[in-house]
Amino acid sequence: MVSPGYTIGSATTTSATPRHQVIAFIGMAVFFLVAPFFIYPVFLMKALCFALFACAFNLLIGYVGLLSFGHAMFLGSAGYISAHAAKVWGFPPELAILSGTATAAALGLISGALAIRRQGIYFAMITLALAQMIYFFCLQAKFTGGEDGIQQVPRGVLFGFIDLRNDLTMYFVVLAIFLAGFLLIFRIIHSPFGQILKAIRENEPRAISLGYKTDHYKLIAFVLSATLAGLAGSTKAIVFQLASLTDVNWPMSGEVVLITLLGGLGTIFGPVVGAFVLISLEHYLAQLGAWVTIVQGIIFVICVLTFRRGIVGEIARLIKRPL
Amino acid sequence: MKFTRTMTLAATVALAIGAGQAQAQYSDGTIKIGVLTDMSSLYTDLSGAGSLLAARLAAEDFGAAAKGMKVEFVNADHQNKADVGSAVARQWYDVDKVDVIVDTPNSGVALAVNQITREKNKVFLVSGAATSDLSGKACSPNTIHWTYDTWLLANGTGNAIVKTGGDSWYFLTADYAFGHALEGDTEAVVTKNGGKVLGKVRHPLNTADFSSFLLQAQASKAKIIGLANAGGDTTNSIKQAAEFGIVRGGQNLAGLLVFLTDVHALGLQTAQGLIFTETWYWDMNDNNRAFAKRMAAANKGIHPTMIHAGVYSAVTHYLKAVEALKSDADGGAVVKKMKDTPTNDPLFGQGSIRQDGRKIHPAYLFEVKKPAESKAPWDYYKLRATIPAEQAFRPVNEGNCPLVRG
Amino acid sequence: MFDFLGIPPQALFGQLLLGLINGSFYAMLSLGLAVIFGLLNIINFTHGAQYMMGAFGAYFLLQYLGLSYWWALVISPLVVGLTGVIVERLMLKHLYKLDHLYGLLLTFGLALITEGLFRNEFGSSGQPYRIPEQLLGGNNLGFMFLPNYRAWVVVASLTVCLATWYVIERTKLGSYLRAATENPTLVQAFGINVPRMITLTYGFGVALAGFAGVLAAPIYQVAPQMGSNLIIVVFAVVVIGGMGSIMGSILTGFGLGVIEGLTKVFYPEASNTVIFVIMALVLLVKPAGLFGRTT
Questions:
Q1: Is B380 found in the same domain as B258?
Q2: Is the domain of B168 the same as that of B189?
Q3: How many domains does chain A have?
Q4: Are B79 and B203 contained in the same domain?
Q5: Domain-embedded: residue B47
Q6: Is residue A266 domain-resident?
Q7: How far is Cα B31 from Cα B123, in angstroms, rounded to an integer?
Q8: Is residue A311 part of a domain?
Q9: Structural Rg of chain B based on CA atoms
């Protein structure tokens, strides 16, 4: 199926956590702790949600070699459930986020079981079509509010004593969620389980011949990725007090591909960098109308033609260490 | 030479001082108007860049500069996404010191901005969005809904058509909240006036092919086919209705949400005979025509829609209120002042604003001309009826607006 | 009187015929995708944008050169095909040695650029395009009114699809093409210029999309976003049919059009999703698609 040479998202990592990655992680964490005092926190929260979403997506493409073109369905449906739970059922934020995330996990299990029957391009198209189905469901279902979405979602009080109405407080909660998700992915990649995923990516028939039930592993990775995407979506809904069709529609699936591609497929920090670069870019281009789409397209083309390692991938190459 | 230069210098200094004194009363020295609209997608032509232009013209005509009021504009594309729109609104209020947001087509985005504006006690002047909730259950002391709403569309069109003999209806409805609301409102009007609804079919959003739905409508033998949809769905269904000979077969189409730019995109050949309600048309009087001429010249020849006119009118009234208060700091106070003052501007004439934030003015039932009747480009409508201001909008006590119940 | 589940036979026949008309578009577009995929192994995400360009081409030719629909039917696909050739020469060419997914990503990016540029230039309300005079009017078939133009769409699409099938499956040129799909190195060794064949194949597949666009122009509003929603449905059609099979993509295209038409009668709310549901079912039973070979 896959031609020899460059496999998509070929990352090299070892099972031990290299020191420079720990240093990079600490650097990132410190940056995020200080950032809200200089940068508009709402913007930072948006970027963090997208970063987590992209990290989840990257787990699949970068470490299993499966390109999903339908990840918006997990982000979006989790957002709807989380918003609905917080607004209509009156759940506290932690439970709302949890129920959204659980929904994404369940959805990931069903769609994953279908999608992993094929690889490569077929996998991409199947996920895209499944996501489109979810989109139409959300468009027509009563509880999603159609085009208006679910609005005025209360941020609520976390664990009964942390009032999230303050942007700065909310920011640190989002940061905690992001770091937890990031560390989980970090852990997965460096675990024996992560090693098997990489073996499947490099040569699936060989992994099968070694006795691994590769479908099993692929499905687990798919569900994990869906769950974390759902976590990002649920959090986003609480932060912006809103769940809308944007998050389930296919341009969103394209956007997460772009973020990851720009940051560096199969790099640990790539999706985070990609998210910040792209979200800032969109922020400044927002006044220019259709130019947002055009610029996104141009970045896609440039990345594919000449910049396939992405920002972090190029840095990693320069310092000759995986990031 | 030297003399003139000194004079100019002195004048500039005097102006600067004068301006400085006047500005001191406005928050951070300027009145900052944010035009939040769709700059890239389906509402671009009927709102978009034209709305920013209309807002600028309003400030220019008001003579803000001469009165020592420094008015600045920012604009952004909400891409029809409520999350993008609300993020922009938050940022504008929190960081960029925007005092008022205007226009905002797309009801979903408008409802989100409505909420944020209230939280931050700023001002929101809606021209582009349709949902009557903005002066109903979502009404706010910081929002004025200016140009039109879904209740007006349903009632204006529904009433007039039933009264002129269109008493049996079949609905083609976009299958989501907006379509359902429009269908529901219109159905209520039709049945109240003694008409009946023979059937309805719900089509998914962004349907390219309406032929099978149109065939069902044709088979129902209803006199009127009501299009409870918007944008591309409306234009495509009108275009294909012409193809299947529906109008020639004796059935009429009622567009519930149609704008001048839609008619332009369809062409008169296809759109002729279509009946719908609007609150403003460029070719009704000299003031309107003059405005249209200025707008078209600066906006790729696109003639202004009622939404553009609404933006102009709303910004004019806002500036008047701010001038009277000598302050723009308290959004709630500005809106209160706007409600207390009767409106009067070249485009909408005299009018008023109700306690629920509903701007009141007459509405008009238009029919699209036949190609032979059109004498110039953009000469598209003929007036069929005028709905007086007091009947055009939903009665104040029927909207469930918390501001007026108590 | 015989009624089928409460639907009068007239309505049923009408809807079946309409389904066939819609199927024409699915068939032409999925055929183009299948031809491209067969040789290049690339899923052409730009296909929807190229379909849109075909429709805009017809509009430009009429608006600026005064050329009629019939000229557009020839010129517009050629021009769109030519843009395809340029894209292949400048960009796609460099990707053949990489994972095929890069082709998908590149064409996705190109689709965004094309759509954005058109939207910037022409807004999104769309442009009107009239049905050619020779095809105005229609016939009353007893069970429905069939506009002449729609009948023409079915005829044109069937002709083009079958001609393509014939060329690929039954002629010498087609046999080169099929051979090159199987083993490009060997075919190259026989002295056939495979890279040029690839370029022309991409150009041809794209031209098919352009042709479908011209056919669509008088029915749908000529608008920048007209292709983007359609293309995802066509992807599902291709997955159901099995990629790379010429006849498979034609049959599935028409077949799914008909099924969608029936859904519009019995349960219109699901007419957007039915194709995706079928896709899921097919994947469960035959992962390679109805006509696909298992690889």
A1: yes
A2: yes
A3: 1
A4: no
A5: yes
A6: no
A7: 12
A8: no
A9: 22
Are residues B109 and B189 both part of a single domain?
Answer: no
Judgement on whether residues B124 and B32 belong to the same structural domain of the protein = yes
Give all strands (DSSP E) within B57-195, no chain letters: 71-77, 100-103, 123-126, 143-145, 168-174
CA B125 to chain centre: 10
Q: Contact, C76 vs C213, CB < 8 A?
A: yes
Note whether C163 and C155 are within 8 A (CB): no
* Residue A110 CB partners (closer than 8 Å, separation 6+): none
pTM of the shown model: 0.84
pLDDT per residue, tens digit, chain B (406 aa), is 344 444 444 444 444 433 444 444 566 678 999 999 988 777 888 888 899 999 999 999 999 888 888 999 998 888 778 888 888 899 899 888 999 999 998 888 899 999 999 999 999 999 999 888 899 989 999 999 999 998 999 898 888 889 888 889 999 998 777 788 889 889 999 999 989 999 998 887 777 788 888 888 888 889 999 999 887 788 889 988 888 888 888 888 998 888 998 899 888 988 888 889 999 999 999 999 999 999 999 988 899 999 999 999 999 999 999 999 988 889 999 999 999 999 999 999 999 999 999 999 999 999 999 999 999 989 999 998 899 998 899 999 888 899 986 5
Range of the domain at A190: 36-249
Alpha-carbon distance C124 to C221, whole Å? 10
The whole-angstrom separation of Cα B254 and Cα B274 is: 6
Residue C288 lies in a domain: no
Domain contains A297: no
Three-state DSSP string of B360-391: ECCEEEEEECCHHHCCCCCCCEEEEEEECHHH
The Cα A219–Cα A113 span in angstroms is 7
Assigned domain for C85 exists: yes
| Two tokens, residue B294 | 């200025």
**Residue B256 sits in which domain range?**
151-278+363-392
Q: Is residue A97 part of a domain?
A: yes
Rounded CA-CA distance C213/C48 in Å is: 9
Chain C nearest-CA distance from B268, in A, is 10
Please report residues of C whose CB lies closer than 8 A to that of B202. 268-269
Q: How many domains does chain B have?
A: 2
d(CA C294, CA A179): 42
Separation between Cα atoms, residue B234 and residue C287, nearest integer Å: 39
Two structure tokens written together for C123: 């807004």
The reply to whether B293 falls in a domain is yes
B209 part of a folded domain: yes
User: Cβ of A286 under 8 Å from any chain B Cβ?
Assistant: yes
Distant-in-sequence, close-in-space partners of B35: CB < 8 Å, separation ≥ 6: B51, B52, B55, B73, B74, B75, B76, B101, B102, B103, B311
- With CB atoms and an 8 Å threshold, state whether C232 touches A299: no
Inside any domain, residue B6: yes
Please give, rounded to a whole number of angstroms, the shortest distance from the CA of B201 to a CA of chain C.
7
Q: Which long-range contacts (CB under 8 A, 24 or more apart) does B89-95 make?
A: B89/B34, B89/B36, B89/B113, B89/B116, B89/B117, B90/A42, B90/B116, B91/A40, B91/A42, B91/A43, B92/B34, B92/B36, B93/B117, B93/B120, B93/B122, B94/A40, B94/A42, B94/B120, B95/A40
- Domain with C214, as residue range(s), is 16-97+126-225
Q: Is residue C237 part of a domain?
A: no
Chain C residue set in contact with A, beta carbons under 8 Å? 41, 43, 91, 94-102, 104-106, 108-117, 119-120, 232, 235-236, 238-239, 243, 269, 272-273, 276-277, 279-280, 283-284, 287, 295
Within this chain, do residues B36 and B123 fall inside the same structural domain, yes or no?
A: yes
Q: Do B75 and A287 touch (CB under 8 A)?
A: yes
What is this model's ipTM? 0.85
Q: Which two tokens stand for residue A256?
A: 């997460």
Whether residues B251 and B381 fall in one domain: yes
Residues on chain C touching B305 (C-beta within 8 angstroms): none
On whether both B118 and B182 belong to a single domain, the answer is no
Number of domains in chain C: 1
Is-contact B74 B56, C-beta < 8 A?
A: no
| Distance (Å, whole) CA B303 – CA B54 | 11
